[in-house]
Amino acid sequence: MNYKKLIPVLVVFILPSLLVSLLFYILLGHRRDYLGHYAAGFGGTLCAISIALAIVPASGFDRSSSLAVVICTVACIAAGTLTESTIFRLAKFDEVDYCNQNLGAVVAGLAAIHVAARTKPTDGALRSMIATGAVFLVMGAYFAVT
Asked: Quick one: which of 100, 102, 125 has its CA closest to 112?
C-alpha cells in the first residue's frame, strides 16, 4: 500500500471532522446527542461518497467526481431528512439534530470535493475512507443514545 498517497487523503477527512467533534464535545458536552448526530451525518455521508467515488471510472474522474460527490451529499441529506421525520421522530422533529447531521454531511462532502479534485483515490484510500466513516457512524450511535 502506498502510504504517501493514503495519509494526505485521511488527513483531509479526519482532522476537520475531529476538530468539529471536539468543539461539539467541549462546548456542548451537556448535549452529547448533538455530537452523535454530527458524527453520524459525517460518517454515513463519507461511506456513501467513498462508494460513489469507487464507482466513477478513472478515465472521466476529473470531470464527474465533484458532481458525484455533490449528488451523493444531497442524497444523504435527503435520507437524513426522511429518517429524522419518520423513524427517529419519537417525540417531534428535532431541528437541532437535523442541522447537526446535515453539518456532518456537508463537512464530508467538502473534504471529498477537495480529495476528488485531484486524481482518483487508490483502492486503499477508498477503503480507509469507508473505515473512517464507519468509525464515525459508531461514534455517532454511541453519543446519540448516551
From this structure: 125
Q: Please list the pLDDT of the chain residue by residue as tens digits (146 residues).
A: 556 666 776 788 788 888 888 998 899 878 888 899 999 999 999 999 999 999 999 888 888 999 999 999 999 999 988 888 887 666 667 788 889 999 999 999 998 988 887 788 888 888 988 999 999 999 999 988 87
Contact (Cβ atoms closer than 8 angstroms) between residue 37 and residue 142: no
Identify whether the C-beta of residue 13 lies closer than 8 Å to the C-beta of residue 132.
Answer: yes
Beta-carbon neighbour count of residue 24 at 10 Å? Answer: 22
Q: What are the CA-CA distances from residue 19 to residues 14, 44, 100 (Å)?
A: 8, 18, 14
In Å, what is the CA distance from 146 to each residue of 5, 17, 34?
Answer: 37, 20, 11
Give Cα 109 to chain centroid, integer Å. Answer: 7
**Helices in 28-60 by DSSP H: which ranges?**
32-55
List Cβ neighbours of 66 (8 Å cut-off, separation of 6 or more): 113, 116, 117
Q: How many residues does the chain have?
A: 146
> Given the C-alpha cell 421522530, which residue does it identify?
89
